[in-house]
């Protein structure tokens, strides 16, 4: 397991995209998490138990209409903006859901730690094996803006 020790800037929006493959059941675990001092769940993507995939921003939760545990490769992208806490969820280039009021007006704090494959209970540590991602992950990318649907389609 590798921690990316790259300091992120303060962000008012983000897009995160990745290819993933999992046949884990129930729940694929945590493809990635970003923790900052004082908030281990600044950004988390997690699916545990029989719950839908969830996006956490500042410990607030949105359930995403994604389904990726069929053992095939899927491209997923999640966008979020502090303006109204608006989010979008894409799977294989198609926007499957949107929502708002997810940590609205909360800027993403800088200086944290991105971890692929684990949820952090403290920044950079205290991992729970039951929340580990089970599967394969490739081409993880993060932007400090909301990508346009045409750009997301081009990545998938």
TrEMBL record:
Entry keyword Ion transport: no
Primary localization: secreted
Molecular function as annotated in GO: metal ion binding
Annotated localization: Secreted
PROSITE patterns: PTX_1 (PS00289), PTX_2 (PS51828)
Keywords, alphabetical: Calcium, Disulfide bond, Glycoprotein, Metal-binding
The keyword Protein biosynthesis belongs to this UniProt entry's keyword annotation: no
GO cellular component: extracellular region
Lineage: superkingdom: Eukaryota
Ranges of residues in domain Pentraxin (PTX): 1-156
Cofactors named for this entry: Ca(2+)
Annotated cofactor note: Binds 2 calcium ions per subunit.
Subunit field text: Homopentamer. Pentaxin (or pentraxin) have a discoid arrangement of 5 non-covalently bound subunits.
Family from the record: Belongs to the pentraxin family.
Protein name: Pentraxin family member
Organism ancestry: Eukaryota, Metazoa, Chordata, Craniata, Vertebrata
